[in-house]
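User: I've been going back and forth on whether these two constructs are worth ordering. Before I decide, could you fold them both?

Assistant: Sure. I'll take them in the order you sent them. The first construct and its structure tokens:
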Amino acid sequence: MLVGFSLVLSFWYFAVEVWKLPRFEKMPGLTAVLKEWLSQNPGFGLSFYTVEYYHHIWASLERVLIAFGLSTIIGVPLGLILGWSRKFKAYVFPIFELWRPVPALAWVPLAIVMFTAAESPIIFLTFLPGFFATTLNTMLGVRSIDESYLRAAACLGAGQRQIFRHVIIPGATPFIFTGLQISMGVAWFSLVAGEMIAGEFGLGYVIYTGYTLLTYPTIVIGMITLGVVGYTSSAAIRVIGNFLMRWRAREMGLSGSPT
């Protein structure tokens, strides 16, 4: 990881500040970005030492957490039912697949019309891609469960509710957490689009404002901060998923042990 980051930063430094390669000569250099980011008196008004910097981070994080929570609360149960009930899937899944390819930016005019509050359109645009990712992965997790587990549970006298609780949900859990990681990533992606259009705070707003004011170091600071916060939030989901799925690690260890 350290070698990878070192190579990227080295290429950035040499391409912009030393070699001045075509397409890179107008980009902000590594030195300029670090000076602005670590300055107590930043030339463009945003650095580690300014309160506004953390206001932007918190505003984006709050929006993503709300949208991610909504996509999880709605998407996971919907995905479980879509995977469990063929009749329900026949009614709902075609509509789901019709809307899923529509990008978040296409919803911008309708979001502004539907929601009057300032924050609601941004949260809605952030919610949509995560909702589709969570629902689809949860449904695929249910469909991936071996039929023999369901038949075995039924032969042992388990009812439909017991099968759903003790077979379907645990069996789909790995796919659910994969969907949650994807959901968190696309939530940050779509958040930037929402904040560029309707936000007054947030990392997307920082990037868009930097573009309109030609403060390119601020754009890079916003992009790197967005990547760090997004990576940390996705890593937190992985940690929680690994903790909740310790049984799966033990199962894989046992299945891989020599007999």
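The second construct, handled the same way:
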Amino acid sequence: MFREVVLGLGDNPVVEGVLKRYGMQLGASRFVAGSTLPEAIEHIRRINKRGIKVTLDHLGEFVRQEAEAVDAKESYLAMLDAIHQSGVDANVSLKLSMMGLDLSRDLAKTNVAQIVQKAAEYQSFVRIDMEDSAHTQSTLELYEELHREYPQHVGVVLQAYLYRTMDDLRRLSTPNSNFRIVKGAYMEPVAVAFPSKADVDENYVRLVQESLRLGNYTAVATHDEHLIGRVLKYVYENGVPKDQFEFQMLYGVRFNLIESLAQQGFTTRIYVPYGRDWYAYYVRRVAERPANLLFFARALIDRT
């Protein structure tokens, strides 16, 4: 119920106006690494010093004009250049709707292909994020096409709350597959998604185990210590090598936990978003955990 209420408020234009005006000062900066690329690179440097890698995301989605999609592509090419030139340990992730998927599939593919090609030149990597279920099929189809051409330089996100995901995982598992497995952060109907958190959690563990069993490189993206414990139990019992998986968490959430995993010798990565179009991302973060709303409330009180 909490999640549904917050996501619903996020669509309220009054709430959106207030948060866009004051949100960064009232807590959004905890989850967003600044508005500019140089700011984000400095955040990455600090994270790298703690033994943790980064995936960098320029926030934005659902562009409405082709010029916006082209601008988004150019921003990602600049990100890859900045990562390469600065020497930080990071790759990038992107949303296809930001690349123009809702305008033209060909436009999105052209834009993303240029980004993946640049990543390949730098021996880097691009993660294609998953959005709401209306975009799932087209996202996976475009990923498959790019993966055939750049098998070591592009991966995709799979969402545990969707019924279809296990079938997708098995179908997509080919040599050099690289999946980031998440629970899912969008409001989805019961027709396509598990309504129960317990069912989502159980499916999450099954997906990670199956991905590892099939030999995929698997990014275990969760802050849930219980789920991490279950994954580690499977890893130890089945002799899964440490270079077949990594743990990922979001910027601003449970840093002590991911740092502890890094200190134990596991590959770890923090998802670092930056940019001015942070509103939708921030609302989803608040909706995920009541504690995030409390953080926002404390920031509001501190400023009054």
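Notes on the second construct follow. The domain at 32-277 is CATH 3.20.20.220 (TIM Barrel). Strands lie at 53-58, 90-94, 126-128, 154-159, 178-182, 217-221, 245-250, 268-274.
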